[in-house]
Amino acid sequence: MNKKIFALLSIVFFAVSCNSVPQSGAAMGNLQQKYDSLAQVVAQMHEEFEIVKFGLERRGASMADMKAELDAERKVWDIPVGQSPVAGKADAPITIVEFSEFQCPYCARVAPMIEEIVKKYPNEVRLVYKHFPLTGHNNAPAAAAASIAAQNQGKFWEYRYALAPYYRELIPETFIKVAEEVGLDMEKFKKDMELTPEMQARIDEDFKLGASVGVNGTPNFYVNGRKSNRFSPELIDQMVADLRK
User: d(Cα 245, Cα 239) in Å, to the nearest integer?
Assistant: First the structure.
């Protein structure tokens, strides 16, 4: 495209400078004016071409992102449970792995939905929770530590669902208040909730795992190893219905 523009200018310049017929001053001035006008048009075309080129490059990047996302959905990931809290039967045919955190408002909104799915299908669904505190959510690691402290007493899920509405108030006082509400041993809880290097390492382990399987935000769900960007109760309903056929 650029070569065509430059070629066009060259032709015009040749016509102006190499005309074999002598021209009067007025005629030459008129021809020069036409050349200048054409040069402006070509310059405008060049600018518009660059804009279109930029848009196509952006579109290409977007398409590449979409392809990567689709490829991630097709891939079946082997996501180890490790030390993560689990709800449901170990041999349940549907395993949902949730990468989430406590400062994310979207995570707070879906928490009741997730709780309802597990209650609805206690024999068919197993839920695994992985900590994925986002950069900039500075209170999320401390909240994760508090939830692990609750897990140490066998009450992660009660604590998780009780803490979810407080995503704007993730301070020690809130962690303690919720712990009291779910009936934890407070002395043990206060000791275990400290964000020690060992605790941070445990949270980081989940985060690194998430990054390695393509987690790019929260909440992210993996159903039987496949990333689900369209996760919903209806999806699980259909999977359970298919199992029961």
Answer: 10
Task: Please tell me the predicted confidence (pLDDT) of residue 45.
Answer: 65
Cα 23 from Cα 234, distance rounded (Å): 81
Amino acid 245: pLDDT? 87
pTM: 0.73
Q: Which residues does the chain have with pLDDT short of 70?
A: 1-37, 39-73
User: Which of 43, 74, 105 represents a domain boundary (last residue)?
Assistant: 74
Domain membership of residue 59 as a residue range: 2-74
Task: Compute the radius of gyration of the chain from its Cα atoms.
Answer: 31
Sign of the CA dihedral with 185 first, then 173, 169, and 131 last: negative
Indicate the number of domains in the chain.
2
231 found inside a domain: yes
Residue 56 in any domain: the answer is yes
Pure H helices in the chain: 2-17, 25-74, 105-120, 140-151, 156-163, 172-181, 186-192, 197-212, 233-243
- In angstroms, the CA 62 to CA 58 distance is 6
Residue 170's contacts (CB-CB under 8 Å, 6 or more residues apart) are 102, 103, 139, 140, 142, 143
What are the beta bridge partners of residue 126? Answer: 95
Closest by alpha carbon to 157, among 205, 122, 206? 122
C-alpha dihedral sign at 174, 179, 181, 187: negative
